[in-house]
Amino acid sequence: MQLNQALDILKDEGYKYTEKREDILVFFNEQDGYRTASDLLNHLSQKYNGISYDTIYRNLHLFNELNILEQTELDGEKHFRLSCGHHEHHHHFICKSCGKTKAIEACPMNELNLNFNGYFIENHKFEIYGLCPSCH
């Protein structure tokens, strides 16, 4: 997803533009992978003295609800990244060191559905964690 697309989604959904919101989106636009609320707070506190975790989390969850950001959990902590823009169903490999991701085009549910005859599966999540070539 591009920065302008994200700002358009905010506007189209009736949320007002603020410089902080744009700076949050710029931060994720410049990152290559998942980042934490702490990463974002450290970045924004250089410009916004006294910015709180509450402000950070409120905006992160708004952007996640609007599908501007994707969210995952690594080692018990939520991590976010700009939506990768894939419109088709897919999953990710996530580097546990740098947070970079690589799309996984195959879905294991195609095989697993055979074992769930009679069950109604509403949703699923599949991620692989490890080290990317740069971090290995």
Automatic annotation (TrEMBL):
<keyword id="KW-0862">Zinc</keyword>
<feature type="binding site">
    <location>
        <position position="124"/>
    </location>
    <ligand>
        <name>Fe cation</name>
    </ligand>
</feature>
<feature type="binding site">
    <location>
        <position position="95"/>
    </location>
    <ligand>
        <name>Zn(2+)</name>
    </ligand>
</feature>
<keyword id="KW-0805">Transcription regulation</keyword>
<dbReference type="InterPro" id="IPR043135">
    <property type="entry name" value="Fur_C"/>
</dbReference>
<dbReference type="GO" id="GO:0005737">
    <property type="term" value="C:cytoplasm"/>
</dbReference>
<comment type="similarity">
    <text>Belongs to the Fur family.</text>
</comment>
<dbReference type="GO" id="GO:0003700">
    <property type="term" value="F:DNA-binding transcription factor activity"/>
</dbReference>
<keyword id="KW-0678">Repressor</keyword>
<dbReference type="GO" id="GO:0000976">
    <property type="term" value="F:transcription cis-regulatory region binding"/>
</dbReference>
<keyword id="KW-0804">Transcription</keyword>
<dbReference type="GO" id="GO:0045892">
    <property type="term" value="P:negative regulation of DNA-templated transcription"/>
</dbReference>
<keyword id="KW-0238">DNA-binding</keyword>
<dbReference type="GO" id="GO:0008270">
    <property type="term" value="F:zinc ion binding"/>
</dbReference>
<keyword id="KW-0408">Iron</keyword>
<feature type="binding site">
    <location>
        <position position="98"/>
    </location>
    <ligand>
        <name>Zn(2+)</name>
    </ligand>
</feature>
<keyword id="KW-0963">Cytoplasm</keyword>
<feature type="binding site">
    <location>
        <position position="89"/>
    </location>
    <ligand>
        <name>Fe cation</name>
    </ligand>
</feature>
<dbReference type="Pfam" id="PF01475">
    <property type="entry name" value="FUR"/>
</dbReference>
<dbReference type="InterPro" id="IPR002481">
    <property type="entry name" value="FUR"/>
</dbReference>
<dbReference type="GO" id="GO:1900376">
    <property type="term" value="P:regulation of secondary metabolite biosynthetic process"/>
</dbReference>
<dbReference type="InterPro" id="IPR036390">
    <property type="entry name" value="WH_DNA-bd_sf"/>
</dbReference>
<protein>
    <submittedName>
        <fullName>Fur family zinc uptake regulator</fullName>
    </submittedName>
</protein>
<keyword id="KW-0479">Metal-binding</keyword>
<feature type="binding site">
    <location>
        <position position="132"/>
    </location>
    <ligand>
        <name>Zn(2+)</name>
    </ligand>
</feature>
<feature type="binding site">
    <location>
        <position position="135"/>
    </location>
    <ligand>
        <name>Zn(2+)</name>
    </ligand>
</feature>
<dbReference type="InterPro" id="IPR036388">
    <property type="entry name" value="WH-like_DNA-bd_sf"/>
</dbReference>
